[in-house]
C-alpha cells in the first residue's frame, strides 16, 4: 500500500518495492532484536509494562500514517527519501508488529512447555499470506488509497487492543525467572542460519526485479513472489516432513537452467511462461533455504536468538540487493549469483557422502559458471557503457548490422533508442521513433486548428517530451523550434548527451529538465503554462509503465501546458499491456478525440504503437495522418479508468 503511494513521487519501478523491502527487513531485524533483548533481560511483568507503553505510543503515532506526505523528503535522493518516509509514517507500528511473532512464541513456550512453539511461526505467515492475497484482488480494485489506509489503521488498533489484553491477562502465568536462552552465535549452525535467510531474501528481490523490469511494477507482481516466499516458510515450519531435501534439490538444479534462459532470453518467452518459470526458480530456492532453516532450528529457549539471526540474514539480503549490488554490478548479476550461492550452500559435504556425489555437485557449479561466460560473450556486440542506479540498469551497445554500426540504448532488456554511427543514417531516428510513427507524424506535421497564428508563432513551435531515451525525437526539431525533454533518470541524461548525437545534431533548441515529469510540470505551472504545441509521453522503463503519468489528474495537468489545439502523443507499445482502452476513456473524460497509429515492424525496427489525443481536426485531416490511422486493438472498455486514488493494471493485461 505504501509502496504504491510512493510511485508517483519516484517515477515508478521495481526499485521502489525493493527499497520498501529494505526498510521492512531492517525494521524486522530491529523488532526481533528488541524481542530477544526483552525476553532475555527482563522478567515477564517488566516485559508487559514496557511493551504496553510502546503499543500506546504507536497508537498515538497513527495520525502520521493517515495523511502521509512524501514531498517533505523530496530534496533527498530516492533511497533515503523512501526510508525516511517509511520510518516517520509507519516505523513504530511496524517495529512492534515485527516483534510480535517471537514474543508470542516465547511466551507460549513458557506457558505450554510440552508443545513446540514453532508452528505458530507457520500460522503467523498464513496471516501474512492472507493479507498479501487480499491486496491485489480485494483492496486495490475496490478501495481508494485513502480508504485502504483507514482500514489498515483500524486493523492496527484492533491488534494493539488484543495484544494488550493478552499480556495483562496471561503473562502472570509465566514463571518470573523464565528468560530466553543464549543466541548461540558461536555455534556452527548460526552462520548457516544467517546465510540461508539472506539467500532466500536475495532470491526473492532478484526474481521480483527480473519480473518487473519487463512487466509493470503492479502490486500483483510484487505480491505473488512474496506469497511464495511466505508459503515456503509455512510449509516447512508447519509440517517438517513436507520438506523433502532430495526432491527440492533436483527441482532447484532444473530451475538454475531456467534461470539462465530467462536472464539472457527472457523476452523470447510470453508473459505466462516468464511468470511461471521465475516463480518456479523462486519457490524451489526458498523451499531449500527455508527447509534447511527449519531442519536446523534450536530448542524453544533459543528461538528468539534464532529469529534474530533470521532477521539479520533478511536485512543482509535486502542491503545486498539495494545498496551493494548497484555499486558492484552494472547489470542485475545478483540473480545468477544467488542461484549459485544457494547451490553451494547445499553442498553435500557431510561425513559419509560418497566422493562421486561431491564431484558431481562441483561439476554442476562449474558448468553453470561456464554457461554464464559463454552466454555473456556474443560475437559482433561491443558494450560501450553500462550504469546501474536506483531506477535500474542501463547499457549502451554497438552492434554490426549489415556492415553498419548501430548504437543501442538498452534499458533493462528492452532497446529504448538506436542510432547509426555514420552519416547519413545517423541523422535518422530509429526504432519506435522512426519516420511514419505516431510521434514523428505529430512533430513533423503539426498545424494549429485555424490559420490564425502569426507566421512567427508558427515558426516558433514548442514541444514537450516526457522521457528522453537516446534523444531520437530531437531529429524532428526545426530551426526556431524549442524542445523540452523531461527525464527522471540521470543516467539516461548522461547517455543521451555523451554517447548519442541526436540532441547535438538537432536544428531545434534543446533543453533537458531533470526530474519526474509530472512533478516538474506541476512546479512550472507556478510561472504559467508552457503552451506546448505537442507533448510526447514516452516515459516507460523497459516494458513497465509509471501509472501516475496516465491518471486522469495527470492528463488534466498535461492539457494545462498544451495549447487548446495541441496534440498529446502517448507511446503504448507494450508486450503485456493494452493501454489503448484506458487512453480512449481518458480522452472522453477530457472531451478529446483519440486516434490510434500502429506502425508495423520493419527489418530490425520493432512495431510501434502510438495514441494521439487532440481536437485539432485541421491537423488530423492531413493526408499523412489519415493514411497512418489504424483500427483499435480491442473494443472499448468503459470501466477502465485511472485516477491518483485508484488504478488497477490487472484491467489492461493483454
Automatic annotation (TrEMBL):
Keyword Transferase part of the UniProt annotation: no
Transmembrane residue ranges: 14-37, 49-66, 78-97, 118-138, 150-169, 190-208, 220-238, 250-269, 275-294, 306-329, 335-352, 359-377
GO-annotated biological processes: polyamine biosynthetic process
Protein's name in the database: Fused MFS/spermidine synthase
Key words of the record: Membrane, Polyamine biosynthesis, Transmembrane, Transmembrane helix
Organism encoding this protein: Rheinheimera lutimaris
PANTHER family xrefs: THERMOSPERMINE SYNTHASE ACAULIS5 (PTHR43317:SF1)
Amino acid at each position: 500500500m505504501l509502496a504504491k503511494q510512493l510511485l508517483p513521487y519516484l517515477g515508478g519501478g521495481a526499485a521502489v518495492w525493493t527499497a520498501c523491502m529494505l526498510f521492512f527487513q531492517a525494521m524486522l531485524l530491529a523488532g526481533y532484536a528488541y524481542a530477544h533483548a526483552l525476553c532475555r533481560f527482563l522478567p515477564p511483568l517488566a516485559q508487559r509494562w514496557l511493551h504496553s507503553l510502546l503499543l500506546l505510543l504507536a497508537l498515538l503515532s497513527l495520525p502520521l500514517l493517515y495523511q502521509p506526505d512524501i514531498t517533505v523528503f523530496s530534496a533527498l535522493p530516492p533511497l533515503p527519501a523512501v526510508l525516511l518516509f517509511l520510518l516517520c509514517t509507519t516505523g513504530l507500528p511496524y517495529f512492534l508488529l515485527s516483534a510480535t511473532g517471537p514474543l508470542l512464541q516465547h511466551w507460549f513456550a513458557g506457558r505450554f512447555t510440552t508443545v513446540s512453539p514453532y508452528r505458530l511461526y507457520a500460522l503467523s505467515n498464513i496471516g501474512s499470506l492472507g493479507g498479501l492475497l487480499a491486496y491485489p484482488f480485494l483492496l486495490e480494485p475496490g478501495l481508494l488509497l485513502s480508504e485502504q489506509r483507514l482500514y489498515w489503521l483500524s486493523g492496527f488498533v484492533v491488534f494493539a487492543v488484543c495484544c494488550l489484553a493478552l499480556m495483562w491477562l496471561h503473562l502472570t502465568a509465566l514463571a518470573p525467572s523464565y528468560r530466553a536462552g543464549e543466541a548461540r552465535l558461536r555455534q556452527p549452525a548460526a552462520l548457516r542460519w544467517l546465510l540461508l535467510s539472506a539467500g532466500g531474501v536475495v532470491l526473492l528481490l532478484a526474481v521480483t526485479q527480473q519480473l518487473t523490469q519487463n512487466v509493470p511494477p503492479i502490486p500483483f507482481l510484487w505480491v505473488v513472489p512474496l506469497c511464495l516466499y511466505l508459503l515456503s516458510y509455512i510449509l516447512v515450519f508447519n509440517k517438517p516432513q513436507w520438506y523433502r531435501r532430495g526432491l527440492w534439490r533436483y527441482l532447484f538444479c532444473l530451475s538454475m537452467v531456467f534461470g539462465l534462459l530467462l536472464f539472457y532470453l527472457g523476452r523470447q518467452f510470453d508473459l505466462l511462461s516468464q511468470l511461471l518459470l521465475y516463480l518456479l526458480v523462486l519457490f524451489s530456492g526458498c523451499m531449500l533455504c527455508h527447509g534447511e532453516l527449519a531442519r536446523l532450528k534450536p530448542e524453544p529457549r533459543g528461538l528468539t536468538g534464532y529469529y534474530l539471526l533470521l532477521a539479520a540474514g533478511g536485512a543482509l539480503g535486502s542491503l545486498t540487493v539495494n545498496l551493494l549490488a548497484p555499486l558492484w554490478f552494472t547489470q542485475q548479476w545478483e540473480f545468477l549469483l544467488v542461484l549459485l550461492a544457494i547451490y553451494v550452500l547445499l553442498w553435500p559435504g557431510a561425513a559419509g557422502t560418497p566422493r562421486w556425489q561431491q564431484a558431481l555437485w562441483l561439476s554442476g557449479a562449474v558448468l553453470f559458471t561456464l554457461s554464464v561466460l559463454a552466454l555473456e560473450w556474443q560475437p559482433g556486440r561491443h558494450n560501450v557503457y553500462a550504469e546501474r542506479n536506483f531506477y535500474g540498469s542501463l547499457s549502451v551497445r554497438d552492434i554490426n548490422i549489415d556492415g553498419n554500426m548501430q548504437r543501442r540504448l538498452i534499458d533493462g532488456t528492452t532497446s529504448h533508442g538506436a542510432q547509426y554511427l555514420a552519416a547519413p543514417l545517423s541523422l535518422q531516428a530509429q526504432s519506435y521513433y522512426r519516420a511514419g510513427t505516431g510521434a514523428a507524424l505529430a512533430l513533423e506535421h503539426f498545424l494549429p486548428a485555424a490559420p490564425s497564428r502569426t507566421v512567427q508563432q508558427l515558426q516558433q513551435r514548442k514541444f514537450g517530451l516526457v522521457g528522453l531515451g537516446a534523444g531520437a525525437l530531437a531529429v524532428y526539431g526545426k530551426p526556431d523550434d524549442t524542445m523540452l525533454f523531461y527525464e527522471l533518470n540521470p543516467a539516461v541524461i548522461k547517455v543521451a548527451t555523451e554517447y548519442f548525437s541526436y540532441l547535438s545534431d538537432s536544428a531545434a533548441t534543446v533543453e533537458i529538465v531533470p526530474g519526474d515529469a509530472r512533478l516538474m510540470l506541476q512546479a512550472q505551472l507556478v510561472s504559467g503554462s508552457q503552451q506546448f504545441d505537442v507533448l510526447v509521453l514516452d516515459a516507460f522503463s523497459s516494458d513497465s509503465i509509471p501509472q501516475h503519468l496516465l491518471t486522469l489528474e495527470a492528463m488534466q495537468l498535461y492539457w494545462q501546458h498544451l495549447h487548446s489545439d495541441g496534440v498529446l502523443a502517448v507511446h503504448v507499445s507494450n508486450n503485456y499491456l493494452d493501454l489503448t482502452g484506458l487512453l480512449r476513456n481518458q480522452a472522453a473524460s477530457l472531451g478529446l478525440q483519440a486516434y490510434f497509429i500502429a506502425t508495423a515492424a520493419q527489418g530490425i525496427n520493432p512495431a510501434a504503437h502510438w495514441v494521439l489525443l487532440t481536437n485539432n481536426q485541421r491537423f488530423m485531416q492531413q493526408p499523412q495522418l489519415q493514411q497512418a490511422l489504424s483500427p483499435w486493438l480491442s473494443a472499448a472498455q468503459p470501466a477502465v479508468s485511472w485516477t491518483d486514488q485508484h488504478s488497477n493494471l490487472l484491467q489492461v493485461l493483454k
